[in-house]
Amino acid sequence: MSHLQDTISLHNGVQMPRLGLGVFKVEDGEEVIHSVKTALAHGYRSIDTAAVYQNEEGVGQAIRESGIAREELFVTSKLWNADQGYESALQAFETTMDKLGLEYLDLYLIHWPVEGKYKDSWRALERLYQEGKIRAIGVSNFQVHHLEDIVNDASVKPMVNQIELHPKLTQQQVRSYCQEQNIIVEAWSPLMQGEILQEPLIKELAQKYEKSPAQIVIRWDLQIGIVTIPKSTKTHRIHENADVYDFTLTEEEVASISALNEDHRVGPHPDHFDF
Q1: How many CB atoms neighbour CB 172 within 10 A?
Q2: Considering only Cβ atoms within 10 Å of each terminal Cβ, which end of the chain, N or C, has fewer?
Q3: Which residue in the list 44, 53, 108, 118 is annotated as catalytic?
């Protein structure tokens, strides 16, 4: 883990950057274009969006205007709940591609495990993958029982599971299952919407290493082997979030951060969401 272009290998051999930019709640148009172009100019190569974020058009514009070759980038989007099902997922993917203005996607995820629909959605993703329209496919917010349900019938196993993960929600059970199945875990809301930055241990380590609390948490993410996509719209924060390669937390410090776990979520529980 020496620089921002470091990658992790998915089980089909595709290389995924270990640190990327998330654009949840970033407004389409000028705001998201600025965020993405700032990140790409600074060396980020992974951008994570979703149909429900309603900013795919701005993300696509920023990618085109960045001047960076498409094959150097790793672009993720997600299938929204209202579009789940086999035929509707295929159609939703085409809409996403039209908005992004891209010829292929690097990673496409089922956003939430909609009961009675996610297996049909997965068949659609398998087809798109086999047709070469997506380089890797995965899921988001899947618990172990959802993953088992997919893995038992799938012809292509998920490559990524993107879940809420931060020091107050370490998701050890899901991570252990994913490790057994060679599914890469990716963290959304890694900074707990800013709440974790006030944690005394995190602030203490920030002081020790002369880093920001956010940098301590991002470094923890990388050292426990997960992919992370902190969101920011501010230039200095986008730069700061990537400046985590000149220090290393000790094993004891990593363990003490993990010990902050309280199974506390800032987002919905995947077994109890209603949207």
Answers
A1: 11
A2: C
A3: 53
Q: Is residue 267 part of a domain?
A: no
Is residue 119 assigned to a domain?
yes
pLDDT digits (tens, 9 = 90+) for 141-163: 999 999 999 999 999 999 999 99
What gap in Å lies between CA 263 and CA 40, rounded to an integer?
34
Q: Indicate the annotated binding residues.
A: 111
Torsion of Cα atoms, 215 then 217 then 222 then 223, to 10°: 110
Measured CA angle at 228 (ends 223, 234), to 5 deg: 120
SS3 content of the chain, % helix, strand, coil (to 5): 45, 15, 40
Is the pTM higher than 0.70? Answer: yes
How remote is the C-alpha of 157 from its chain's centroid? 18
The string of pLDDT tens digits covering residues 159-184 is 999 999 999 999 999 999 999 999 99
- Report the distance separating Cα 4 and Cα 249, nearest Å: 17
Residues of each annotated binding site for substrate: 111
Number of compact structural domains in the chain: 1
Cα 115 from Cα 271, distance rounded (Å): 9
**Element holding 72 (H helix, E strand):** none
Annotation says 53 is catalytic: yes
User: 172: domain range?
Assistant: 7-258
The predicted pLDDT at position 2 comes to: 77
- Residue 240's CATH number: 3.20.20.100
Residue 177 pairs with which residues in a beta bridge? none
* Cα distances (angstroms) measured from residue 139 to each of 110, 114, 143, 239, 256: 5, 11, 10, 28, 29
CA distances from 191 to 107, 166, 219 (A): 23, 6, 11
Structural domain contains residue 274 = no
